[in-house]
Amino acid sequence: MKPLPDRSPGRSRRGSILIIAAGIAAIVAALALACVSRVRADAEEVHAFLQDVQSRVMLTAALQYVQETARLGWDDPAPSGRFADDFEHEEAFGWIDVRDGQAGPRLRDGRWPAGIALSDGLGNGPAFPAAGGRAARCPMHPLRRPPFAVRPATVGNAIRSDDLSLAWKDLVGYQRPDPERIGTWSEFIAGDRRPDPAMEGRAWFRVRRHRIVATDSDDPTTWTSPARFLITCGAGASLGYRDWDEVVADGATAIFGSRDVFDDIRRHESIQWYEAEWSPAVDAHRFYRHMWQSCYRMTNIDAVSRPTYNGWYGFSHWQGGTFAYIQRIFAEPSEW
After folding, report:
1. Would you put residue 324 in left (φ > 0), alpha (ψ -120 to 50) or beta?
2. pLDDT tens across 128-139, in order?
3. Does the pLDDT of residue 326 top 90, yes or no?
4. 273: exposed, middle or buried (C-beta count within 10 Å: 0-12, 13-18, 19+)?
5. What distance in Å separates the CA atoms of residue 274 and residue 120, rounded to the nearest whole number?
6. Can you tell me the distance from the alpha carbon of 122 to that of 194, in angstroms, rounded to the nearest whole number?
7. d(CA 46, CA 54)
8. CA–CA distance, 93 with 301 (Å, rounded to integer)
9. Model confidence pLDDT, tens digit, residues 257-308
């Protein structure tokens, strides 16, 4: 005779508990997966936000770079043979020369700084700072120790009491420098210019000067965009290289290893483009007026080409300059 199945209450309860436990486990797993997905999405959003912030910080750095190079950074230690005080620290007079309205940067005798190749008399050339050429590429990273670094600590310099017969200047004179330099004097001056490996490859910017076009090369009033710049700001590890061909041309393939690695880096970067026009005019309501051949003559030796005195009292030109406009560009330019 066939035995009857066991239908006792205890066996039924055990089966129900197993089903409930499996359901709770499935719910917990689903909640955990949703939590992990949300955390990952938040992390990606935060990363994108940080990249956007870094890109915008690079805009500030690039604008400062444009302003500084309008005047500084052109020192050539070699004598030119043109002046009695030949060993000078050469400075320029603006992207639009404040003396005569010609394109700069040019030194006090009208020459472009040494090492800058030009393709015509307007200021166009194959590479920055000449107009129309390859952009200046500026990867931004902290140095391991910048020049003239000091310790962030207060140095005690108590008044000496061992010899009260000393002069006052010796009693209160600093026995230890405050702030205190890092390293020897030569190390203090030179610093350690190697990139900080923990911060390398975070952000960069590029500055390209628009090509100058003229209907009359002898008349600066007919020149277009003599001081207009395309600024590219990026956050990522491409070091500011636009494409793999540029990496190859610079001999920097060892940095990235292969085109695929570089292309993957570029896909995950945040890049923004801006256009800015540098202006030598810094005087309030006449800010936008470029008085090409009506600039102040600074000194006789600084006056080159055909400068004339400005007849408007108070109109100010400054070789450091400022910006007539800064504009965001949302579509990728054909050249940057």
Report:
1. alpha
2. 999 999 999 999
3. yes
4. buried
5. 27
6. 38
7. 12
8. 13
9. 899 999 999 888 889 999 999 988 775 544 333 333 334 334 334 455 544 4
DSSP-based three-state secondary structure for 134:
strand
Q: Is 239 left (phi over 0), alpha (psi -120 to 50) or beta?
A: left
Q: In this structure, what are the phi and psi dihedrals at residue 117, rounded to the nearest 5 degrees?
A: -90, 135
Q: Tell me the two tokens of residue 110.
A: 């009208």
SS3 readout for 160-212: CCCCCCCCHHHHCCCCCCCCCECCCHHHHHHCEEEECCCCCCCEEEEEEECCC
User: Side chain identity at 187, as an amino acid letter?
Assistant: E
* Closest to 93 measured CA to CA, from 323, 319, 322: 319
Peptide linkage before 179 cis (omega within 30 of 0): yes
Query: Which residues, at least 6 apart from 195, have a Cβ–Cβ distance to it below 8 Å?
Result: 141, 142, 143, 144
Cα 300 to Cα 81, 297, 304: the distances in Å are 19, 7, 8
Per the document, the length of the chain is 336
- The domain locations on the chain are 51-77+86-142+199-329, 143-195
How many other CB atoms are found less than 10 A from the CB of residue 269?
Answer: 15
pTM, 2 dp? 0.70
Beta strand 228-235 pairing with 223-224: unpaired
- 3-state SS of 236-267 is CCCCCCCCHHHHHHCCCHHHHCCHHHHHHHHH
Report d(CA 232, CA 274) in Å as an integer: 6
197 cis-preceded (ω within 30 degrees of 0): no
How many helices, marked H, and strands, marked E, lie in the chain? Answer: 6, 9
Nearest to 57 by CA among 272, 213, 212: 272
How many Å apart are CA 305 and CA 97, to the nearest integer?
10
Q: Is the pLDDT assigned to residue 205 strictly greater than 90?
A: yes
